[in-house]
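User: Can you predict the 3D structure of Histidine phosphatase family protein? Sequence below.
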Amino acid sequence: MKNVRLIRHGESAANAGEPTRDHASIPLTAKGLEQARIVAQSITSAPGLILASPFLRAQATALATTALYPDAAFETWPIHEFTYLAPARCVDTTLVQRRGWVDDYWQRSDPAFSDGEGAESFIDLVTRVRAFLKRLAEHSASDIVVFSHGQVMNTVRWLLEKRPQVIDGEAMLDWREYEIANHIPNCQGFSLSRHTDGRGWALGH
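Assistant: Sure. Here are the predicted structure tokens for Histidine phosphatase family protein:
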């Protein structure tokens, strides 16, 4: 049996309403660091593998757990947050300032649309998360802890619960509704399990 625990990063400067330079280098707040420490303490046995997104806030959250279990394997995988707004125009902006751009993106409802250099399309996100699930299934470790981001984690759940056959505008809007309804708080998450007989992933709490 393979068991995977997925955890959203701790509170970041952006979550706290502060302006940020870019998506990848957003730091944790003091509250986020404390949340990371509490999560690490909740892991009562050494994982076979600890994974983190390359984004700073996920790496910093994982650090508390890697410090507690220094002999556990640690790897960085491309499970970073969905970057659907072009990073260049988001420099030194807050979540409130980006709200209009966010609304415009989702109203467009075009899964192939890219906002500019460094931005992903919705299809890119789904492809990346599917590749993550495949890589997880193929990895030899049986107990895995993953530090990632809310929208990526909700894409995992959405794919497993909804099992969309086509990634079109309707699927994109369904994902958006699902993500809003199932917001994942900082340092919260859910688990996955998979039998070795290949029956697929099962979602836990």
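The longest strand covers residues 2-8. Helices lie at 30-42, 56-68, 99-108, 122-138, 150-162, 169-181.
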